[in-house]
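#onboarding

Welcome to the new folks! Below is a worked example of what a typical request in this channel looks like: someone posts a single protein sequence, and someone else replies with the predicted structure as tokens. Don't worry about understanding the tokens yet, we'll cover that in week two.

Example request:
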Amino acid sequence: MQWTLVIPLKPLARAKSRLAPTAGDGLRPGLALAFAQDTVAAAVACPAVRDVAVVTDDALARRELSALGALVVPDAPGAGLNAALRHGGAAVRASRPEAAVAALNADLPALKPMELARALDGAAHFPRAFLPDTAGMGTTLLTASAGVELSPAFGTDSRARHAASGAVEIVLEGVDSVRQDVDTGDDLRAALALGVGPRTAAAAARLLIAD
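Example response:
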């Protein structure tokens, strides 16, 4: 099965606010962009991915992520993460109604294409499925097969919310890079230990991160 990934991204000035203690407001927007660039680059390189749609209104992100091969969809609703994902999914299915669609976080800088393929292949057995984040409370990947609504429920305790909505939790080994999102300095350390993409590596090199 080939998937279209929908990746939401806030305006960079407001993205990754919980990284402020680690990166400061001067470096934080650039770090958020680097995360998104490495996420999109890995997604585009994944053999299970047909194409990638990024939902954002940020002009710099639009330019940089388009250059990596993503289709950029304006965040017309402007009403938060779940509204952006529903809008992006609808935009994809307006031209391809039978597309299999997956929502993917934009903050997966260690993402490996083959690990993403493994997760998507696991999800293909179910109408809707999700992968929890490393912390065990959130969600990094939510999938909907052809003809099935994505019905995103991201936010606080999204793992429980997606399970309650009927999505099946994917239980797989060897997909750590798909689960390691980055919200805090500790998350960034964990992602660096997994091996991040080149843009995140360059941006993180400007930080002083204690061991």
